[in-house]
């Protein structure tokens, strides 16, 4: 089969590799029908995730068709059209039993450092298939379903739910990449009174308004002006960090009201400063986390009912064989305007 492999920092190769197979009774073998490229794939390509070794297949988001199942798989059958989730734990360890599949002690899924071969291939082996695969209804097109693999549950669980967005609350989302925009879409489900997005890129601000933000501003000065105007200087109920750099984390902690929540979603590659000299008196809750995908069945149902709508999210489409071109476009997102790049089997 053909697959996109990591070949050391800065090098990716689309090449022939041995076919993926069922290796354990809990595995399923899935033919990849549609797949996307995620910002985390770019982190791995840069060499930021040293656990990933040369030759590993990239990718952790896909829609496909079940070709074969292990002897103990009962949740899906051959021929089913499925979502391949970025996380799917063993279901038995102490973390999975608490719905923390992202922390699975048996290493379920791809999110914890891509230690197993990924989805950017013609075939993918899915471990713990009963938890990592979700049957898709016909009503959800591949292009929308792809966003349920990682982006939507990440934004909803780690941003919106950890951030305690509630009816009538005021919400700031810093960063309007795929994750920040998915936070806009899923925050709306909880009927906050105002969603303000901060992003220096005008195309991202436009997208934020398209997906339901009430206001999108370029930087700290404008969002502080909004804090004065909308919250009478008190601060916002929920502030979601969806960038992953020290400056934006510090901005988030400066925007939250006493008793409010800062939900960090961004992956940080360097230390950040926690201003406890300001925060200690404010009763602030700060949350962090990796997506667990416990919300995927709920989001799938809401998408099927048209209440989670991601039309317009995929900006560029390619054939699976054009994987290198897809990466070229995604890597130059600031020039190409790429939000999400999707690749489809012919
Ligand atoms: P992205 O890089 O595509 O988007 C980041 C956005 O932040 C861009 O639109 C950019 O213009 C904006 N930005 C840059 N500097 C900014 C600033 N100073 N102020 C405001 N906005 C700024 O990233 P993404 O794919 O949307 O992911 C966002 C973060 O979430 C990343 O750090 C990613 O690694 C992380 N992530 C976390 C999890 C998890 O489980 N916790 C899962 C997936 C992704
Ligand atoms: Zn587990």
TrEMBL record:
Cofactor entry: Zn(2+)
UniProt key word Membrane: no
Ranges of residues in domain Enoyl reductase (ER): 10-343
Molecular function GO terms recorded: oxidoreductase activity; zinc ion binding
Pfam families: ADH_N, ADH_zinc_N
Keyword Zinc: yes
Family that this chain belongs to: Belongs to the zinc-containing alcohol dehydrogenase family.
Record's keyword terms, sorted: Metal-binding, Oxidoreductase, Zinc
Protein name: Zinc-binding dehydrogenase
